[in-house]
Amino acid sequence: MEDSLTRPSSPAGLSCYMAVSQLLGLTVIAMTGAWMGQYRGGIAWESALQFNVHPLCMVIGMVFLQGDALLVYRVFRNETKRSVKILHGLLHAFALVIALVGVIAVFDYHRKKGFADMYSLHSWCGIAAFSLYFIQGYLQ
Question: Per the database record, which ranges form the Cytochrome b561 domain (predicted)?
Fold first, then answer.
């Protein structure tokens, strides 16, 4: 009866999988930053480099932080549920804010350059993914 009251232990190898996932995530962020810095001229808000904010923010927000927010319940299974929920919510909020900066950057860049918005499948799929992510977070 006592065993049913204790929390289950972490699956074997979870810490290795987590270390690999974090290493891969940070590598993707570093590679995107290097791509923007070395091959696209850098990142700036008030110049032609404003567009470069978009890919970096999307990788940080919608890939890395959102993924970490999803993994929080598995990693911190021995912590109190309240603290895990707070961390989960904070990571999702940071992911949303950073992704929103990326969306604003690309729309502002298009407006300044006189380009049409939402002209590609990438644009439509991206705005759909961001909108559904926002709606899902708002409804919870």
Answer: 20-140
